[in-house]
Input
Amino acid sequence: MVKKSDIPRLEVFSLNTEINKKNHLAIGGCDTLDLVKKFGTPLYVYDENDLRSRCREYKAEFGKRYPNVTIAYSPKAFTAKAMLKLVQEEGLDLDIVTGGELGIAKIVGFPMERIHFSNSNKSVEDLEMSVKYGLGHIGVDNLPELDMLIKIAGKKKVKILLRLNPGVDPHTHKYNTTGIADSKFGLTRTTWDQAVATALAAPNLDLDGFHFHLGSGLFEAEPYFKAMDAVLSYAAEIKKKRGYNMKTLSIGGGIGIQYTVGKVPPPFSYFAEKITTYLKKKCTDFGLTPPRLIIEPGRSIVAKGGISLYTIGVIKEIPGIRTYASTDGGISDNIRYAMYGEFARQEAVIANKVSAKNTDKYTIYGKLCESGDVLIKDIMLPKLAMGDILVMAGSGAYAVPMQSNYNSMLRPAIVFVKDGKARLIRRRETLDDLIRRDSD
Ligand SMILES: Cc1ncc(COP(=O)(O)O)c(C=O)c1O
Output
């Protein structure tokens, strides 16, 4: 019988992935072909125990090295009521970016004091809602927002973090890079002093500390060091100048995950060790009291726990050029490859041929009217036939939240699996959903 370890590609799938007795791919104890029979394709499946174990690993690895730490899950990577509930049960906070995410958190009863809100262009409504609900922090991104918030907060006292742009390149995809000077995010270095002065002078603001976020998909700790250097040296400067003590430092998210065979990032323990050691040392060097540390992981909590399943349709061989294999989904359910190219490459297997040899090269595309509707370019797979079930690994982050109805595609169902049981956490869209907001 074929074992998981015989198939190198399976190392990038979720923790509870196996080949079952029928020689099919199974996740969370559920045969993927049974899931397809029950829920159809395209289908997103999340391994609940995988998601929970990553939440726990973050808490344990950072918590044992730096007790005053908060892990705030970033739901932009994957937002669903069931996911927010899971995060709440695991004792994580939330790092949100829109009023929409805040609204969903409110609906699931997420404690508002455990929510931190950062965005570069919050609306009046976003700020009003944040003040009304009493969020843990409003992350103020720029000077106009600071002025708006002072007006909106009125007589209420609001806890804020100032998002400082540290001008650091995290060596990731340019679309995922947020902490370089040439970025819409965060206060430019030349405005830090003005922002701090304004915040400290406002009786209705409680400046709790600073925030930065460098980018997504980081494989090294050095960019965090550089950003901490910039922010901590500034905190030391204003401690001297103004007697202000920074109480909280949020270093954003960004820790990368393994999407492809052989490209393995360091484990969470590595980042925890490097970041907390550096933070403690720099606080000693700069004469600062070690702050509460907030980390905002998104991708690294949900990416590996999620897979996407498609039914293979038309296969078109262009002799000497390429063989295209179509799926019943595409960029409407996963736009990552179209947006980021090879940076967003994902592995795949065929659920019903999981132990067969990868003999043929295919480009996997979708059913949308775009030549850029590609899910995976040039991947070796067993010889494909219509009706085969393609399973993509690492679909858990930034696929579901970026889905669209382009070409009037219906967005897929989402299932959570655990210990051999599957529960539908989002039903497949229907035609009614597509026209619900239209009028004649
Ligand atoms: C402010 C902020 N925090 C956290 C994250 C999550 O990053 P990641 O999913 O790479 O962990 C993002 C992602 O863009 C972000 O903008």
Summary: The pocket of pyridoxal-5'-phosphate is lined by residues 74, 76-77, 95, 118, 178, 213, 216, 252-255, 296-300 (CB under 6 Å). The chain has twelve helices and 20 strands. The chain has two domains: 4-40+305-435, 49-302. The domain at 49-302 is CATH 3.20.20.10 (TIM Barrel).
